[in-house]
Amino acid sequence: MDKQLLAILVCPQCKGKLQYESKQKELICRFDRLAFPVRDEIPIMLIDEARHVTTEELER
């Protein structure tokens, strides 16, 4: 993921910072516990496309 792009992307729900998880190819919003997929190097920033992240996943 491009660092410049990551610096300007925010969670569409809370406008908070996102953390990139390269293994899962997801952008994580820790506050809302949402994971946005990255497909073909393109972040999909739609709330309907996001999955909920469990507490156990956040603790890793």
Descriptive report:
The chain has 60 residues and is of the alpha+beta class. The protein has a single domain (3-59), classed as N-terminal domain of TfIIb (Single Sheet), CATH 2.20.25.10. Helices cover 18% and strands 28% of the residues. It is built from two helices and five strands, in the order αβββββα. It has helices at residues 3-8, 55-59; strands spanning 19-21, 26-29, 34-39, 42-43, 51-52. Strands 1, 2, 3, 4 and 5 form a five-stranded antiparallel sheet that branches. The two termini are 20 Å apart. The model has no long low-confidence stretch (mean pLDDT 94).
% residues in beta strands: 25-35%
Apparent shape? globular
Distance between the termini: 20 Å
Discrete helix count: 2
Architecture, according to CATH? Single Sheet
The tally of beta strands, per DSSP, is 5
CATH top level class name = Mainly Beta
Helical content class: 10-25%
